């Protein structure tokens, strides 16, 4: 067997692991993906709500008034239970990049146009597929993209 001199080891094949692996693979890297369960997907496949994002094309198309600032404020309040809480730098980054995350998923043929307003939100910003649970749809869809890289030996 050919040994790789450099590869990224991704532990866990849920949503985070699948996203990390796909990002490395698309950049031309090699990945060793490790999962303790018999099947890929982890707990992410059980998630039902969706992905939260603000100022997305779906919100604009559906006339939903939302902003990165409002998303960050909602998140800070949820964290600290204080209406005057300021978003942490990490929260600010998450909220600022959230629309790009939806775009990235949709570039991988994962259509998530259905919006709902879940707990702690001041606007409809939870993006989900037209049918089925969001977790399984998104996670298994990303892992299908990762598996395409197995065929050329870029991923184990």
TrEMBL record:
Matching InterPro entries: FAD-dep_OxRdtase_2_FAD-bd, FAD-oxidoreductase_2, FAD/NAD-bd_sf
Signal peptide range in chain numbering: none
Keywords linked to the UniProt accession: FAD, Flavoprotein, Oxidoreductase
Superkingdom: Eukaryota
SUPFAM superfamilies: FAD/NAD(P)-binding domain
GO molecular function: oxidoreductase activity
Cofactor(s) in the UniProt record: FAD
Domain FAD-dependent oxidoreductase 2 FAD-binding intervals: 8-134
Name of the protein in its database record: Flavocytochrome c
């Amino acid at each position: 067997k050919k040994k790789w001199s450099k590869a990224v080891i991704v532990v866990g094949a849920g949503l985070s692991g699948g996203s990390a692996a796909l990002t490395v693979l698309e950049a031309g890297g090699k990945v060793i993906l490790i999962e303790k369960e018999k099947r890929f997907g982890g707990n992410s496949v059980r998630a039902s709500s969706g992905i939260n994002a603000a100022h997305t094309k779906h919100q604009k198309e559906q006339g939903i008034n939302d902003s990165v600032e409002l998303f960050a404020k909602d998140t800070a309040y949820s964290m600290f239970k204080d209406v005057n809480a300021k978003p942490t730098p990490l929260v600010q980054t998450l909220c600022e990049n959230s629309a790009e995350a939806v775009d990235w998923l949709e570039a991988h043929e994962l259509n998530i146009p259905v919006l709902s307003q879940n707990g702690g939100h001041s606007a409809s910003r939870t993006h989900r597929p037209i049918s089925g649970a969001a977790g399984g749809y998104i996670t298994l869809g990303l892992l299908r993209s990762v598996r395409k890289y197995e065929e050329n030996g870029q991923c184990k």
